[in-house]
Amino acid sequence: MHNIRVLIESGVTNSNIARLLWSPIKVLYATDLPELVEEFKDSEFDPSQSTFSIALIAKTYLSKT
After folding, report:
1. Which domain holds residue 20?
2. Contact call for residues 7 and 20 (beta carbons, < 8 A)
3. Which of 22, 8, 20 has the alpha carbon at shortest distance from 54?
4. Is residue 20 within 8 Å of residue 27, measured between CB atoms?
5. What pLDDT is stored for residue 65 in this prediction?
6. CA distances from 50 to 9, 33, 63, 64, 65 (A)
7. pLDDT for 52 beyond 90
């Protein structure tokens, strides 16, 4: 619930949150999700656009290295 609240407060749309819920990559379980959200917002990704949730999925899928 905390990560969903972070997304809502950051302006992520319901449809993008739904995309994250249905993603096989468990983005909503990421412990660093608040930091990822800020990183993408700083990179000028618009939280209301589908590219935002796709970028979160991709970033969570990739290893840190």
Report:
1. 2-61
2. yes
3. 20
4. yes
5. 64
6. 17, 17, 22, 23, 26
7. yes
Count: domains in the chain: 1
pLDDT in tens, 3-47: 999 999 999 999 999 999 988 878 888 888 999 999 999 998 999
The whole-number average pLDDT for the span 47-59 is 91
CA-to-CA distance for 65 and 63, rounded, in angstroms? 5
Q: Are 60 and 36 in contact (CB under 8 A)?
A: yes
pLDDT at 61: 85
Rounded distance, CA 50 to CA 65, Å?
A: 26
Closest CA to 53 of 2, 1, 14: 14
What one-letter code names the amino acid at 24? P
Q: Alpha helix (H) ranges present in the chain?
A: 2-9, 14-22, 33-42, 50-61
